[in-house]
Amino acid sequence: MSEIIRTENMAKVFTDGKKAHTVLRDVNLSIEKGDIFGIIGYSGAGKSTLVRCFNGIEKPTRGNVFFEDRSIVGLKASELRTIRRKIGMIFQQFNLMPSRTVFDNIALPLKHSGLTKKETSKRIKELLQLVSLPDKEDSYPAQLSGGQKQRVAIARALVNQPKVLLCDEATSALDPKTTKSILYLLKKLNEELGLTIVVITHEMSVVREICHKVAVLDKGKILEEGDVYTVFSNPQEKLTQSFIETTSTLGNVKELIKANSPVVKLQPGQLLLKISYSADSVSEPLISYISRQYNVDADIIAGDVQILSDHPLGGLIIILSGQKTDIDHATHYLEKKHVAIEVLNHG
Ligand SMILES: Nc1ncnc2c1ncn2[C@@H]1O[C@H](COP(=O)(O)OP(=O)(O)OP(=O)(O)O)[C@@H](O)[C@H]1O
Ligand SMILES: [Mg+2]
After folding, report:
1. 257 and 238 in one domain?
2. What distance in Å separates the CA atoms of residue 183 and residue 186, rounded to the nearest whole number?
3. Does the beta carbon of 44 lie inside 6 Å of ligand 1?
4. Are residues 227 and 149 in the same domain?
């Protein structure tokens, strides 16, 4: 794989009167062809500014941005237009023209393409098939649901056959089910067209759902980045951990303990454990193994385990009962298998 977008020590400073406001600092990112690359951060972190630098809508104050190994900083307007045709973009609010039909909205970026009417019509019909809206070409945006509007926006973004699609909070205005269907469509476009996709989001569940790589942006700086499995299984930064916690239900157990819930009430000798799988954990049936081998009982009271890149990711909350030495052996065994153990409570 080779890289398609790269930034080099990129900084962006907005000046408002005399006050300078640094929005991006020393951003070094490399996005490879064919990747779905997630950029996550809280509101105001600089995510939109960052992607706007990718397609030249914003110009970095310092540093450089390369598209296919060519710097786009300082290009003439006409050259920049050519580059922008290779980079499609979609937004949270869809940005469709309300007075135009679906067909005309999608046709808009083809204005100076030189395609004939027939070619234009053929391409738009193909795109409407691709985004699963074959019968909506004569509808107006107001007649569509949010998910359908985003599908039209995706078709419009793809009409010039770009190499990259930038998605700025593309699912933030949609309900969870529609979000899934749009994410599934993006994944399909990535797999079938080889489209490189940059996904801007504040939701870690979006990253987990479709991204291969992720970068965490905080106050204009890249805090942490890597492939999604590695970052999820072994986050280095507090902020990354808190984003990941929002995708798991296991944190609720601490509240149950605080509230003295009967679900987490322990008998003498019992242990309440959180066990978490990591990148090195094996996917053997560990729980049934320790029960058999060490004669302990493992009562699973909550679980959130997913398979990501062929490895288990997530964890379980279990109550272990048995002889103390057996429990010790069992927990040592789990640790040997690279399962992280946190003792939440003792009986
Ligand atoms: N054109 C501009 N002029 C001045 N300041 C700006 C401009 N654009 C963005 N900013 C500032 O830059 C910071 C980052 O904004 P940006 O929109 O990139 O954040 P974001 O991470 O996309 O946030 P959100 O999740 O709310 O969309 C904010 O403090 C914002 O006020
Ligand atoms: Mg934004």
Report:
1. no
2. 5
3. yes
4. yes
**pLDDT over threshold 80, residue 284:** no
Cβ–Cβ < 8 Å for 277, 316: no
Using the atom order of ligand 1, give the atom closest to the CA of residue 41: 21
Query: Measuring CA to CA, how many Å separate 164 from each of 4, 56, 303, 313, 314?
Result: 8, 14, 37, 29, 31
d(CA 155, CA 203): 24
Instruction: Spell out the residues 6+ positions from residue 88 whose beta carbon is closer than 8 angstroms to its own.
Output: 157, 158, 160, 162, 164, 165, 166
Q: Which domain holds residue 239?
A: 3-245
Give the residue from 188, 221, 245 where a domain finishes: 245
| Residues belonging to the chain | 347
Non-local CB neighbours of 144 within 8 Å, separated by 6+ positions: 102, 136, 152
Alpha helices by DSSP H, 66-175: 77-85, 102-107, 117-130, 146-158
pLDDT digits (tens, 9 = 90+) for 37-74: 999 999 999 999 999 999 999 999 999 999 999 999 98
Q: How many CA atoms lie within 13 A of 11 on its CB side?
A: 10
Q: Which of 12, 18, 49, 217 to mutate to test the pocket of ligand 1 (most atoms within 8 A of CB)?
A: 49
Selected residue with higher pLDDT from 340 and 216 = 216
pLDDT confidence of residue 146: 97
| Nearest alpha-carbon partner for 227 in 246, 213, 248, 216 | 213
Same structural domain, 256 and 230: no
For ligand 2, the distance from its centroid to the CA atom of residue 47, given in whole angstroms, is 5
* pLDDT top residue among 307 and 331: 331
- In this prediction the pTM is 0.89
Q: How far is the CA of 155 from the centre of ligand 2 (A)?
A: 22
By the 8 A CB rule, do 200 and 168 touch? yes
Q: Which helix (H) or strand (E) holds 198?
A: strand 196-201
Cα 61 off chain centre by: 27
Place of tokens 């996709």: 197
- Record the tokens describing residue 327, joined without a space: 């429990």
